[in-house]
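Our preliminary data section would be incomplete without showing what the modeling component actually yields. Below, a chain of 108 amino acids is followed by its predicted structure, encoded as C-alpha coordinates that our downstream tools consume directly.
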Amino acid sequence: MIKLYRAISLEEKADLDIDHKFRTSERSLEVKQFFKSREAVVSFVAYSVLQGYIPLNDFLLTINVNEDLLKLANPEDMVLDGFEAVSVKEQDLESFNISVIFIQSEQI
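Predicted structure:
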Protein backbone atom coordinates (compact mmCIF):
# COMPACT_ATOMS: atom_id res chain seq x y z
CA MET A 1 0.00 0.00 0.00
CA ILE A 2 1.14 3.52 -0.75
CA LYS A 3 -0.34 6.92 0.03
CA LEU A 4 -1.09 9.68 -2.43
CA TYR A 5 -2.36 13.17 -1.63
CA ARG A 6 -4.68 15.61 -3.38
CA ALA A 7 -6.23 18.96 -2.50
CA ILE A 8 -9.77 19.43 -3.78
CA SER A 9 -12.54 21.99 -3.89
CA LEU A 10 -15.92 21.67 -2.22
CA GLU A 11 -17.40 20.92 -5.67
CA GLU A 12 -14.98 18.07 -6.35
CA LYS A 13 -15.56 16.70 -2.83
CA ALA A 14 -19.33 16.64 -3.44
CA ASP A 15 -18.74 14.75 -6.69
CA LEU A 16 -16.35 12.31 -4.99
CA ASP A 17 -18.90 11.69 -2.23
CA ILE A 18 -21.51 10.47 -4.74
CA ASP A 19 -19.83 7.15 -5.50
CA HIS A 20 -16.29 7.54 -4.10
CA LYS A 21 -14.68 7.67 -7.55
CA PHE A 22 -12.35 10.16 -9.13
CA ARG A 23 -13.42 11.49 -12.51
CA THR A 24 -12.81 14.53 -14.65
CA SER A 25 -15.39 17.17 -15.42
CA GLU A 26 -16.03 19.48 -18.35
CA ARG A 27 -14.16 22.29 -16.62
CA SER A 28 -11.11 20.31 -15.49
CA LEU A 29 -7.96 18.85 -16.94
CA GLU A 30 -8.28 15.46 -18.59
CA VAL A 31 -5.99 14.05 -15.89
CA LYS A 32 -5.94 13.81 -12.12
CA GLN A 33 -2.70 14.65 -10.37
CA PHE A 34 -1.69 13.31 -6.99
CA PHE A 35 1.28 14.31 -4.85
CA LYS A 36 3.45 11.61 -3.31
CA SER A 37 3.86 13.42 0.02
CA ARG A 38 1.74 15.33 2.49
CA GLU A 39 4.39 18.05 2.59
CA ALA A 40 3.91 18.59 -1.15
CA VAL A 41 0.14 18.97 -1.05
CA VAL A 42 0.30 21.30 1.96
CA SER A 43 2.84 23.45 0.09
CA PHE A 44 0.58 23.44 -2.97
CA VAL A 45 -2.42 24.58 -0.90
CA ALA A 46 -0.43 27.44 0.64
CA TYR A 47 0.79 28.52 -2.80
CA SER A 48 -2.71 28.31 -4.30
CA VAL A 49 -4.05 30.62 -1.57
CA LEU A 50 -1.30 33.17 -2.25
CA GLN A 51 -2.03 33.00 -5.99
CA GLY A 52 -5.80 33.30 -5.49
CA TYR A 53 -6.65 30.06 -7.27
CA ILE A 54 -10.35 29.52 -7.91
CA PRO A 55 -11.95 27.30 -6.86
CA LEU A 56 -10.34 27.20 -3.46
CA ASN A 57 -9.00 23.93 -2.12
CA ASP A 58 -11.27 23.12 0.81
CA PHE A 59 -10.20 19.52 1.53
CA LEU A 60 -6.99 17.56 1.72
CA LEU A 61 -7.26 13.91 0.74
CA THR A 62 -4.98 11.10 1.83
CA ILE A 63 -5.58 8.25 -0.59
CA ASN A 64 -4.41 4.76 0.29
CA VAL A 65 -3.93 2.70 -2.86
CA ASN A 66 -2.90 -0.84 -3.69
CA GLU A 67 0.48 -0.40 -5.34
CA ASP A 68 0.11 -3.40 -7.66
CA LEU A 69 -3.35 -2.34 -8.86
CA LEU A 70 -2.17 1.25 -9.27
CA LYS A 71 0.26 0.07 -11.96
CA LEU A 72 -2.76 -0.94 -14.08
CA ALA A 73 -3.80 2.74 -14.15
CA ASN A 74 -0.56 3.66 -15.98
CA PRO A 75 0.36 6.50 -13.59
CA GLU A 76 2.98 8.84 -15.00
CA ASP A 77 5.62 10.08 -12.59
CA MET A 78 6.10 13.83 -12.76
CA VAL A 79 7.36 16.84 -10.87
CA LEU A 80 4.49 19.12 -9.88
CA ASP A 81 5.32 22.47 -8.28
CA GLY A 82 8.75 21.10 -7.37
CA PHE A 83 7.44 17.91 -5.73
CA GLU A 84 7.13 14.28 -6.81
CA ALA A 85 3.67 13.44 -8.09
CA VAL A 86 1.79 11.12 -10.39
CA SER A 87 -0.65 11.90 -13.15
CA VAL A 88 -3.49 9.57 -14.17
CA LYS A 89 -5.18 10.14 -17.52
CA GLU A 90 -8.94 10.26 -17.82
CA GLN A 91 -9.12 6.90 -19.62
CA ASP A 92 -7.19 5.26 -16.74
CA LEU A 93 -9.24 6.67 -13.86
CA GLU A 94 -11.46 3.60 -13.62
CA SER A 95 -8.39 1.44 -13.04
CA PHE A 96 -7.11 4.02 -10.57
CA ASN A 97 -10.41 3.94 -8.69
CA ILE A 98 -10.14 0.15 -8.39
CA SER A 99 -6.72 0.58 -6.77
CA VAL A 100 -8.11 2.88 -4.05
CA ILE A 101 -8.39 1.16 -0.67
CA PHE A 102 -9.41 4.09 1.51
CA ILE A 103 -9.75 7.87 1.25
CA GLN A 104 -9.31 10.05 4.31
CA SER A 105 -10.61 13.58 3.95
CA GLU A 106 -9.84 16.54 6.16
CA GLN A 107 -11.20 20.03 5.82
CA ILE A 108 -8.54 22.68 5.32
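The mean pLDDT is 94. Residues 1 and 66 are 5 Å apart (CA to CA). Preliminary results of this kind motivate Aim 1 of the renewal.
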